[in-house]
Amino acid sequence: MYDVRVWNYARTIDVIQAEKNSVRSSDTAGLMSCLGTIQSPSLEMIFDIIPPNLPVPAPDVTWDTNVEPNVLPVGTKFGLKCIITPKFSLNTVLQSPQFQDILLNLQSQYTVGEFRHDLALVRYVNQVSRAKKMALTQLLNCKWSDISPSEEELVRMPVLKELVSLRDARLDLLSETSVEEEKTPEISTEILKEKPHEEGMKFKVKSHQHELEFINRDNGWSCSGMTELVGGCKRGCTDFHQSTGWSRYRCDECDFDYCDLCFQQERVQTITQPQTTSSQTDRVLKPVEARFKLLQMLNKSLESTISYIDLCTVDKPWSIASLLSVCRGLIFEATKNPIWESAMISSASPSSSQFEMKISRPRAAKFSRSGQVDNEARHMVFSQVFRQMHQMPPNSLRRTDKLYNVMFLGERAQDAGGPYRESYATMANELQSRALPLLIRTPNGRDSVGQNREKWVLNPGATTSLHMDMFCFLGKLMGIAIRTKEYLALDIPSIIWKLLVGELPNREDLEAIDLFQIQSLEKLRNIHLHGIDRESFGYTFYETFVTISTDSRTIELIPNGKEKDVTFENRNHYCDLVEQYRLHEFDRQANAVRLGLGCMIPSRLLSIYTWDQLEEMVCGKPTIDIQLLKSVTEYSSCSASDAHILLFWQVMEEFTNEERSMFIRFTWGRSRLPLTADAFPQRFKLQSFGKSPPDSYLPISHTCFFSVELPRYSTLEIMKDKLRYAIYNCQAIDGDDTSVGMQAASMGWEE
């Protein structure tokens, strides 16, 4: 945030220009403005009239608060406008006396576990708050016991289970020093610092010739009989304020204190407790409770401040936005979603009539069977939609309702929602195929090793201007999916999503798509551990400074890299170059996707969202939740207790997730469910089927209305076989005997 002030410096511009090089900090006492007081010399002065090389005012310079804002005093010959840009410095904050006490308290009570535990904890909190529809205020004030998972649930969350199972050493230490009301044994300073400072608590400190008695009154420590002492450390530390800061045991009346370093060496004797307690272990939070409490503190502070942070400065290392992006995984969804939703609403276009989208699926199928790649963007369904939509004004596409009416050429289909959803499902399938040049299978998928074998990455070899436009359109489709909740069923790994949210990928992300690459680099780095030395290296390793890209191209890592050999001495440098190239080989394509994404949504807000949160907004959840589907099901001319309905749900439970996804596409034109029951735009309907014998018929779906006519099959196996055949073989939408449907059917497939 920028603070614009009036600089009251009564000199003409000629005088200023003549004297600007001779101005010193001592001269700045005459510089007056209208608001506040400069607290730090680390402010950057930007002048809009003269070069910004005037010295920064000294810390003791005071701005005149009596002058009305933006009004120059009478007699002023010239006024300079000054824009003051505060630069956030973590070191400055950490050295602040006011902050040290807070930091000491946080470190002593809440430092436990690892960052990955915090991320897992926040993911679980988001899941629970969404399921329970908890308001932010409720979430920030609840206890861990109110939302803690069961043992059965923890089995599915191994990282969170680690945190829940952690044993804090403080609990063991305090259990050994537990005190009853009538006992007052000595306890260590560290233990006392970890205890909550309750009203009325007393203790005394013995050191050298002095004995201080402290009592907590109104959340401030006070002592008696020591008013003759001056402020500072009892043990005589020099530079007390600058080097160590105030300790928590400060006398507010006489300003007498121990510095933290000295106080750690003292022994503290408890005199009285405000209330009876059987054990001090009751006052120490369990690790998972401590981390949850700390996360609540963070999010409570962000609740009232996050909307004032300029996220456009996220690329500035000194900005609060940059620090916020680093801890994006610690921010509750309930904290950041309000500003996201507000930005989405303010940038949305008003609903209007849908435009017509003509799509020839037979043309796309014919081209796909040829085995060619649609580099010219003319044949596949994605390409046909790209040609008709990409040049449209982006603001006309920022809508939450249906964008277009689909006319499937050669098919009797009238679009009441089903063909529209089917077009998205078809484009997602085409993107993850060899027919389009935008995505390719991960190296792990090609080699059948490691993780993410089913996933696809951006093609680093797709570099033409048309390819860049297609990537940009892919980003637009992602943004449309976020706004309309018509999810794209894309299987893309974390390394790509991180690039889209502005998060740096790491070695773990690279290993998740190319295990062999990481293993070979590790072996090369540590080749000396396998008996290979400088002499034998040249006989066992024959490589130059090149690497193989994800799309199997040979890439020179340095100029003339093909001519430079990898040696025992430079092997680590070679490994670093390979790793850096592989981590950034998708940057150009990701930037194009991000450009398109920014046309549809406020992309600056992505800096506070994690990669998996963006993936969920674009793609939904790949897992088909049968219980969620049941909760939104209604029955027509049948009931949930009918025999064939019970068989149907049993089949759905036994189906693989792929088969469940295909069933949803068969019945609704999309392959993923909304995230919650409230997000369903229409309910799933199971209808009776009147023809007989039922075992001779296939189920009939109505994708526009998310309904299925289900025959009363006689056995579980017949139900399973009929459903499986239908979902894999009956994908044409060819049953609308309306004028629109007949018109579409009459148009040639190749038109």
Chain-wise SSE layout:
Elements: E1 3-8, H1 13-19, E2 43-47, E3 79-86, H2 90-94, H3 97-110, H4 115-132, H5 136-141, H6 144-147, H7 151-155, H8 158-165, H9 169-176, E4 186-188, H10 189-194, E5 202-207, E6 210-217, E7 220-223, E8 232-233, H11 240-243, E9 246-250, E10 256-259, H12 260-263, E11 267-272, H13 287-303, H14 320-326, H15 333-346, E12 355-359, H16 361-369, H17 381-389, E13 404-408, H18 418-431, E14 439-441, H19 443-447, E15 456-458, H20 465-484, H21 494-501, H22 507-511, H23 515-525, H24 534-540, E16 546-548, E17 554-556, H25 571-584, H26 587-600, H27 611-619, H28 626-631, E18 633-636, H29 643-654, H30 657-668, E19 684-688, E20 700-702, E21 707-710, H31 716-729, H32 739-746
Parallel strand pairs: 8-10, 12-13, 18-19, 19-21
Antiparallel strand pairs: 1-3, 2-3, 4-11, 5-6, 5-11, 6-7, 9-10, 14-15, 16-17, 20-21
Helix pairs in contact: 4-8, 20-26, 21-26, 21-27, 23-25, 30-31
